[in-house]
Amino acid sequence: MVVPLLPRAWPMPKQSQPPMSVKLLLALILAAAPAAIKAQPLEPAAPPQPAQTVEPSWIPFKTNPGDSIIIPITVNGAEVKGLLETGTPMVIIDRQLAVDLKVTLSPEVELEGLSGKVPVEEGRLTSLKVGLFDGKDIDVEVTDLARTRPLTGEAFSVILGARFFSWAAMQVDFDHAVLRFLPSGAASGGVAVAEARLDPVSKKIMTSIEINGQRIDRVEIGTAQPSALRLSPRIWARVRLKTARVTDIASADLTGIAVSPYTIVPEVKIGDHAVRDVTTIIDPDHGGVLEADHANALIGLELLRHFNLVLDVPQGKLLMAERQKPDPPARKSTAGVQGIYGDDGFQILHVMRQSPAERAGLKVGDRICAVDRARVDAAWAGHEKSTWSLGAVGRRVELTLCSGEMKTLTLAEFY
After folding, report:
1. How far apart are CA 197 and CA 202, in angstroms?
2. What pTM was estimated for this model as a whole?
């Protein structure tokens, strides 16, 4: 999973629908985990069983600055936070948690990321409980998730991948920010249906979508993917409109940063539902997130959260219903800078192509110490002040660099 530093200051203000923000996560382990997995059956030694026979209980969740779902789970009797990510095949746990729980680990191997390697080990959990489901003898990948915490703004110790979702159905109510796990086949009726099947080779959950009247198969579902859509270059060439405006965006994993083309697709259909103005990353020609899985596209939480849904992989179905509270449209960057706030100002990590920031001469490494003469510090992260780069088209913003140089941006649509 590659997570973009979405175009504005990071992290984002805390609100029910976050505006576009810097979203850094763990692309490396999520996208590359299969390389470390030995040949083994998909099912655990003992399949998960309901811990009780009562009505499955709802679990409150929250989304972190990467727009990913975080829930409470229990691992070997220890209560921790887990991130839901259908875009990785395995269950992954933090190495420190594995040490604390005295999990026996295999010899370390290294996986390739965007710009380097990260160490990964293997282990086995005695139990993993989520809601009413209790899995026994669960094989897991182990790596240092602590490195993601400064980037995601949320501490979590476990990533629940596609392997977990192959055991039960998950029902998500975005209107009330609750979810629950059900026996496969327990939820049905009254909703549009799309396919959702576990690919036997990549071990990723796949569906299909439609863009510009063209059906696209082998589309991964990634619940920790903050961007709405990712397309392979071949599919982008097939569905691209002549009027499309393309900029670029920086994406990061545990090992580095890569820059990819970024645009808006006017409409994407999944099942019988259409989602408009879909933010889209285009993979590179070689070495992209989709290439290793021979996938054509990936849909993320930004698209899925338009619906209340049931993901029932054993049944091969994704059930979707219109929300009672429609998801507000994502706010677009009108400045074109990506970066991070600190006590010494806002450090620019990327300047988007053809943006007002590029036209004003801002560069990677520049540090902004004041916006409209207001001093910038770490407290701007997570505050409404940080939305200056998402302001109204035509607004003029005066920036004071820490070098003393002044820059003026006129905010504009550029993608």
Report:
1. 11
2. 0.80
